[in-house]
Amino acid sequence: MDVQTDTHPSPHEPATQDAFPVAAKSLLSERRLHTLKQGDMFGVFDQTGDILFGDGIADGLYFHDTRYLSGLSLSLQGTRPILLSSTVRENNVMLSVDLTNTDIEGPEGTDTPAMNHDLLHVRRSRFLWNRVCYERLEIRNFDVVPRTALLDIRFSADFADLFEARGSTRARRGTRLPPQVGESEVSLAYDGLDGRRRTTQLRFWPPPASLDARHAAFRFDLAPGKRVLIHYEVECDPDGQHEARPNRRFLSGAVEARRALRLSSSRAAAIATSNEIFNEAIRRCICDIYMLLTDKKTGPYPYAGVPWFSTAFGRDALITAMLTLWLDPEIARGVLNYLARHQAHIEDPVADAEPGKILHEVRHGEMAELGEVPFRHYYGSIDSTPLFVMLAGQYLERTGDVTLLTSIWPNIERAIEWIDRYGDRDGDGFVEYGRRNKEGLVNQGWKDSWDSVFHADGTLAEGPIALCEVQAYVYAARRAAAVIGRRLGKTAYADRQDQHAESLRVAFNARFWIEELGTYALALDGQKRPCRVRSSNAGHILLTDIATPDRVPCVVEGLMHRSSFTGWGIRTIPEGEARYNPMAYHNGSVWPHDNALIGLGLARHGYRNEAERLFRGMFDAAFYTDLRRLPELFCGFTRNRAEGPVRYPVACSPQAWAAATLPALIQSTLGLGFDPAAVAVHFERPRLPEFLQEMTLYNLEVGGERVTVRLVRAGEEVAINVVERTESIRVQIAS
Predict the structure, then answer these.
(1) 718-to-218, 668, 687, 688, 692 alpha-carbon distances in Å
(2) Measuring CA to CA, which residue among 234, 209, 85, 213 is closest to residue 149?
(3) Each residue of 503-524: pLDDT tens digit?
């Protein structure tokens, strides 16, 4: 992803670094922020439900990469209320906040307060639905005497582009229009330099006692034990079709939002275990995945993460779909359809686009529309294209859906053609990257920090760069294209892809293997010199069969060595390498999705114990994390007893591929697979980690049939019982 933190260059580094960093002052880890997301809208709020006024922080209500609400604060009796509790409910629909009044000073010169604390209770309930942020405020008097409740809501809208909120500066901005204030509504608008008008409309019920362009004030006389309700809503780019009052729209919208999330998540297999804490963690995973899904015309599409990546990314969605394929194949179907539709057709150096290349990122904000950032439709990732073909092959294996594969077969052919024509820049058989737009990403693998590819002495590699894991993806893509091709009657094409894959396997093992390290080089630089650096990238190779069988044990041993495995997970770069830094974004941190992919690779090659260790580490990390939610990444410090993982300051949370990590590790330890032709679910040498005595998987689907199974650990063995099944489905167990 296009995010790097600000650091100071060393003598080995260029004078300029990536142009679009997340500002280091945006320390998401310093504050317990709450996030809501629905469709193309998301909100980031503090614990009280407020949006802090100020620059360089994540807080805000965003729609299509623009901050439509940059400030929101609630005062009670003229002061900021005391926080009692706040949480996002488990289904991710509703933010609930409980507040109370502070001591209110009495007349000057007296020691008697006008009101003691904890007499007025405020309950904030907030959710997002169809471009609208809804909120209900409930104020109740718990005093024995009548009280006058004075409530003030302040608000502002700066219409900052998301990249501005991240820390970028702009030479010019558009024009803010004069506010439009009515009896119970306010409209704030901005004409962007891109010719678009963006409008934030706030509507209140009942009408405030006073209302202007900055705040709404309410006054209520409350008898003992009585309560009053205030409803207001914030709509982005209103369409003027709302006739119902905000109080009625709140109730109907809440019902619709809950129903929509429940309906989409009902597709997924359900998971229940004997460990209640794990149940909390896995429910959070599922709820996060489905909150981050955005319904496109092409089907559900997982946005990458909140706050900085709440948009369509190619690589992130492809990997998320892979990690959740056993759980809900419809996600993969939506991802394949969307990316096929947005496949590049022409050469466009500004967008790093070439015919057949698969999308990296889409942005809708003003800066993207004007070309101030190159990400409007950006293709600067080297791995999205082979991952697209890989996922297509995995989807066919999981579902047998030949109809979808037939419809996207031309896209698969174009993707393979891109690999042949553009991916291999110098004709040496390997796929390399080098940006064509000087404002684009310097590094275009999943580790896209400016300093993530380097030599053993720390010198940055110069391109074009061939990453080790990308060669494995290309190998798997060719094998997948061959399998799909044969299913569609393209036998000659399939044979050619198998031949190309075998040639790549031979060349890869000859050029990338570093005997003295016992692993594969991180990359080859532009002069074809190997970057003799140990890395988690080599773990992705295990997802395929490109490594020779005699070298797999060495790769596994290196990944699980204490210099690499922290106790929580495998570091991106192990301790001892020149640029190792446990606080670096890609050079020593631990990424859950990275470990999930490695876990699947370990299981593929029979390393169940090692996959189980990753499962244990990731679950333990979730145990220590707020809401049991695995973040985008955390620091790579070695695990200490009775302490949680060290947080990374600007990690996104929730993040789609992080949310998919625990489900993927379930698959890896159970050896779970599907055979749509035989209508069978199979388990190969299943294991349950020690923290799980039992696990039940509900409604596993294959070939239109469903089965529910219970797994029980008995020492090193796992017994599997079929609880319920439809008529034709079978369960197979290989020991």
Answers:
(1) 62, 14, 6, 7, 11
(2) 209
(3) 999 999 999 999 999 999 999 9
User: In the beta sheet, which residues pair with residue 128?
Assistant: 133
Q: Strand pairing partners for 86? A: 97
- The single-letter code of the amino acid at 338 is Y
Largest CA distance in the chain: 95
**DSSP H or E run through 150:** strand 147-156
Question: Is residue 338 within 8 Å of 408, Cβ to Cβ?
Answer: no
Specify whether the backbone of 367 is left (phi greater than 0), alpha (psi in -120 to 50) or beta. Answer: alpha
Contact assessment for residue 257 and residue 670, using Cβ atoms and an 8 Å cutoff: no
Confidence grade of residue 437 (pLDDT, cut at 50, 70, 90): confident
Look-up: residue for tokens 């057949």? 356
CA 417 to chain CA mean position, Å: 30
Q: What is the dihedral of CA 319, 323, 328, 331, to 10 degrees?
A: -10
Q: Cα separation of 153 and 388, whole Å?
A: 48
Would you say 151 and 123 are in contact if contact means Cβ atoms under 8 Å apart? no
Nearest-angstrom CA–CA distance, 306 and 629: 13
DSSP state of 111: S
Determine how β-strand 185-191 pairs with β-strand 197-205.
antiparallel
Token digits of residue 295 = 């319904």
Q: Is the dihedral of CA 231, 234, 235, 238 positive or negative?
A: positive
Mean pLDDT of the chain: 93
The full 3-state SS of 661-726, as one line of letters, equals: HHHHHHHHHHCEEEECCCCEEEEECCCCCCCCCEEEEEEEEECCEEEEEEEEEECCEEEEEEEEEC
pLDDT higher than threshold 60 for residue 639: yes
Average of per-residue pLDDT across 333-337: 98
Phi, psi of 114 (to 5 degrees): -65, -30
CB 592 within 8 A of CB 636: no
State mean pLDDT over 367-384: 94
Cβ atoms of 642 and 666 within 8 Å: the answer is no
**Cβ atoms of 599 and 665 closer than 8 Å:** yes
- For residue 561 the two structure tokens come to 């060595």
CA distance 95 to 732: 43
Residue 51, SS3 per DSSP: strand
Distance CA 196, CA 279 (A): 46
